[in-house]
Amino acid sequence: QVQLVESGGGLVQAGGSLRLSCAASGIIVSMYTMGWYRQAPEKQREMVTMITSGGTTDYADSVKGRFTISRDNAKNTMYLEMNSLKPEDTAVYYCAAGAITPSRYWGQGTQVTVSS
């Protein structure tokens, strides 16, 4: 059974930083395309960033230069380092995994709230 468990969300002031973690079981993160999505109230879910099994990364324009995706193969965990946070980054953040696109398996989400 595949499980993705996010942690690290919380309340932070604008300009602050947070690091989200996604601990995986049932899959090997280095063999999947892993990604982070977010969904703000009354908005559609959007992809924030992804990392392929080969290590190629991609970022939404809105987070380029501020967010960094990474993974620790030994811990079978993926991370999202978020810096220079803005109120518009407020959302529920989800980690996901898939063979080609990160959409087959999903975590339960973690709330990130950025106050102005």
SSE blueprint:
Layout: E1 3-7, E2 10-13, E3 18-25, E4 33-39, E5 46-51, E6 57-59, E7 67-72, E8 77-82, E9 91-98, E10 105-106, E11 110-115
Parallel strand pairs: 2-11
Antiparallel strand pairs: 1-3, 3-8, 4-5, 4-9, 5-6, 7-8, 9-10, 9-11
Keywords:
116 residues, mainly beta, 7-stranded mixed β-sheet, 4-stranded antiparallel β-sheet, 0% helix, 53% strand
What does this structure look like?
0% of the residues lie in helices and 53% in strands. By secondary structure, the chain is mainly beta.
In short:
The protein is mainly beta and 116 residues long.
Distance between the ends:
40 Å
The biggest sheet amounts to: 7 strands, mixed
Percent helix, as a range, is under 10%
The average pLDDT value, as a whole number, equals 97
Strand content: over 45%
Low-confidence stretches: none
User: Count of helices?
Assistant: 0
Structure classification: mainly beta
The count of DSSP E runs of length 2 or more, i.e. the number of strands, is 11
Global shape: globular
Radius of gyration computed on alpha carbons = 13 Å
Order of helices and strands: EEEEEEEEEEE
